[in-house]
Amino acid sequence: MSQKRTDYISWDEYFMGVAKLSAFRSKDPNTQVGACIVSQDNKILSMGYNGLPIGCSDDEFPWCREGDPLENKYLYTTHSELNAILNYRGGSLDGSKIYVTLFPCNECAKAIIQSGIKTVVYDCDKYADTASVIASKRMLKAAGVEIVKYHESQREITFKL
Ligand SMILES: O=c1ccn([C@H]2C[C@H](O)[C@@H](COP(=O)(O)O)O2)c(=O)[nH]1
Ligand SMILES: [Zn+2]
Questions:
Q1: Which is the closest atom of ligand 1 to the Cα of 50?
Q2: Is the ipTM of this complex over 0.95?
Q3: Is 150 helix (H, G, I), strand (E, B) or coil?
């Protein structure tokens, strides 16, 4: 009888992998963010990526970062974490974990806390020095949300889509 495979991916690799794959759906030319929400018993509850709200055309709204606030992306994009929270239609997210490719901003931190998510597993923290992320960490810590840095495994998976 053949033995079971031993090189299968871990739960963390699986969920961060799903978050990373979700980010590929983003139309943001500068930063693509993905999120995956998981129950305490390792069931995927929801996913999201940063993008425009339903009905707001990807082709008509701006994607640039600078200039008139009404003519750049920041007032219009829904963040991946919020999309993942709003995409969930199953009831409560109490006690769940969120895997995110970028550390959540202050607005996402509020939504994470209010929705009952108890753990944030993040990959990149490129905006760690910004007021938004500093405030986010302050709120998450105050609310007792566990913050865990994802340690990238050296495993690479490639497949045709
Ligand atoms: O918590 C967050 C913070 C940011 N995002 C999204 C919002 C934007 O689409 C990009 C950031 O763009 P930059 O050009 O790097 O400023 O990331 C998010 O989804 N979640
Ligand atoms: Zn955010």
A1: 19
A2: yes
A3: coil
Please give the radius of gyration of the chain, using alpha carbons only, rounded to the nearest integer: 17
Scanning the structure block, which residue is given the tokens 């905006």?
A: 127
Q: 124 a known binding residue? A: no
Model confidence, pTM: 0.97
Helix, strand, coil % (nearest 5) of the chain?
30, 20, 50
Q: Is 102 in the pocket of ligand 1 (CB under 6 A)?
A: yes
Domains along the chain with CATH numbers: 11-49+80-149 (3.40.140.10)
Q: Does the CB atom of residue 137 touch ligand 1 within 6 A?
A: no
Question: Which ligand is nearest to the Cα of residue 102, counting in written order?
Answer: 1
What tens digit of pLDDT does each residue of 93-150 get? 999 999 999 999 999 999 999 999 999 999 999 999 999 999 999 999 999 999 999 9
Helix (H, G, I), strand (E, B) or coil at 23: helix
Amino acid at the residue 86: L
Token pair, residue 118, equals: 């108890």
**Residues 6 or more apart whose Cβ sits within 8 Å of residue 120:** 97, 98, 100, 103, 104, 112, 140, 145, 146, 147, 148
**DSSP SS3 for 35:** strand
Q: Looking at ligand 1, which residue's alpha carbon is closest to its atom 15? A: 31
Q: Could you give the CA distance from residue 101 to residue 122 in angstroms, rounded to a whole number?
A: 6
